[in-house]
Protein: Nitrogenase protein alpha chain
Amino acid sequence: MAINEKVLEELLNQYPAKVKRNRKKHIIIKDADLARQEIEANTRTIPGIITNRHCAFAGCKGVVLGPIKDMVHIVHGPIGCAYYTWGTRRNKAKSEDPTQNFINYCVSTDMQESDIVFGGEKKLARMIDEVVEIFKPNAISVSATCPVGLIGDDLQAVTKAAQQKHGISITAYNCEGYKGVSQSAGHHIANNVWMDQIVGQGDMEEPPSKYTINILGEYNIGGDSWEVERILKEIGYTVLSVMTGDGSYEALKNSHVAELNLVQCHRSINYIAEMFETKYGTPWLKVNFIGIQSTIDSLRNMALYFGDQDLINKTEEVIARELARVEPVIDQYKKICQGKTAFCFVGGSRSHHYQGLFKELGVETVLAGYEFGHRDDYEGREIIPEIKLDADTKNIPDLHVTPDERRFRLKISPERMEELKKKIPLSDYKGMNIEMKDGSIIVDDLNHFETEEFIKLLKPDIFASGIKDKYAVQKMGIPSKQLHSYDYSGPYAGFNGAVKFAEDIAMAFASPTWNFITPPWKNEPLLEGTIAEGGCSAC
Ligand code: CFM
Structure:
C-alpha cells in the first residue's frame, strides 16, 4: 500500500506526543509538486530509541583514518573502543611495501581504572615510543575516546613532544565519542587535522601526469576502490591518492598537486574537498561509481572537465567495451529482480548511491534515508546557508583555510568553471531527495520501531541496511542486503561491481529460504505494555 499523510500520522500516533513531534520532522513523503520539502537531520537521537548510528570516534578513527594503511592508528582509551573500530569495516588494503602495512593491527593504550584516576598521558607517550620501535612507521595517528576527553589528557602536547623526539608525523584527533550526535562529527574532525597537518607536507610541486586526480570519500569496502581505479587507469588517469580506501600517508601528503578531486561519499569528505579548493585551487566533482549509468555519467563528466578530445574518445571506448561485456550478464539477473521493491537505509551516502543500481535491475526504492546525513545530503548543498547551527554542531570547529601563497593554482579559468558548472556537478551536490520517486518515503535516523512499522505497510521485497537491523528483518521473512560491509561480498562499484551486486540480489530473491521462516513472535505471545507520558515513576 502507498503511504499517505493519514497513514503516516497513524503510525506516529503510537509515540508519546513529544516523541511524535520530533520524529515527524524526520520523515517526509516525497511530493515533487512542492517547491521545497524540508527534513530535519543531524540532530540528537531521542534517548531510549534504538538507532543505527555510531559515535564520533567511530567516524574519525574507524571510518576516515582507519583505512590508511601505512599509519599506525593508536586508540587512546579502553580496549573495547579499539576493538569496536578494528576489523569489522571491510576497508581492504594491499601494500607495495609489506613492512609499511599496519591495517591488520589493533593498537590501543588499553586504559585501566588507574589511568582514568591518575591520567593517561605518560602511558600514551610510552606507547608511541613502543610503536616507533616495533613498527618504524612514517606516521602515527592518535585518536581520543570518551574517557580521555573527560579526564582531560592533553593529546596535542603528548603527540607534539613525540613528533619532535621521533621526527615522524604524529597527529592527534580529539574525536571523543560524545563530540557529536553521530559518527558524522568524527569525519569532520579527521578532515580538519589532515588539511592542517598532512596534506601539502610532501615536496611534490607538479602533478605526475596531465590527468592526475584524487578520489575522495571512497573507502575500498569489499574492493570497490580497486574496481574504480581499474577503470580510471585504463582511460588514462593517474590516481594520486585515495581518501582513504587502500590509501596511504605517503600519497596523502602529496595530494595537493592533483588537477581534480572526485567526491564519492559527500558526507564524510566534503569538508576537505572544499578546503582543497580554497587552499590549492583544486575543484571537486561529485561522482557516483555505484550503478552502471552513474559510473558512465561520472566518467563522461570527468572527461568533460579535462575537455581533451583524446580523453573523451578513450572514455567512450572503455564505456562501450565494458557495457558490451557486462550488459548481457546483468540482463539475466534482471529477469529475477524485475518489479521488486526495496528499502535503502544506510549511513550518509549509500542510500542515494544504490538507488540507481537497484533501478537498473528493475527494483524500485520505496523508502530511503540516512543514519546521520545532514540536510544537504537530502536536499542538496544550496540549503547549507539555511542550516541552523546548534550547540552540537558548534562543538566541531570549522578549520579556516586561506589560499596557499606558493601552491595555490587555478586548475581551470573562472569562466570555464562557470560554464562547466551548468553541465556537470562541479563543487556541487544536489542530494538524494531530488532523485526519489513521488510517494516514496524518506526517513532520517530510522529506528527499530519505525523499521517494523514501515515494513508492515510497504512490504518491501528486500531490505538494504546494516548489521544491527538485518537479522530482525530476515526473521520477518524478508531478505536483507548489508550495504555497509556487503555481507562479505563485493566489490559493488563500477562495471564489475554492478554484475556482482546483480548476482547477489538475484540470489536473495531466488532463494526459497524466506518461506521457511517462522519468527518467534508468530508462536509466542508478545510482551505488551503502555507508555506513560512524562517519564517513569523514578524520574
Ligand atoms: Fe560515506 Fe562510507 Fe557512507 Fe560513511 Fe559509514 Fe561505510 Fe556507510 Mo557504514 S564513509 S557515509 S560513516 S559511504 S561505514 S564506507 S557504509 S555508514 S553510507
User: Anything to note?
Assistant: The chain has a mean pLDDT of 95. The pocket of FE-MO-S cluster is lined by residues 59, 63, 89, 183, 217, 219, 221, 265, 267-268, 346-350, 484 (CB under 6 Å). Residues 142 and 249 are 14 Å apart (CA to CA).
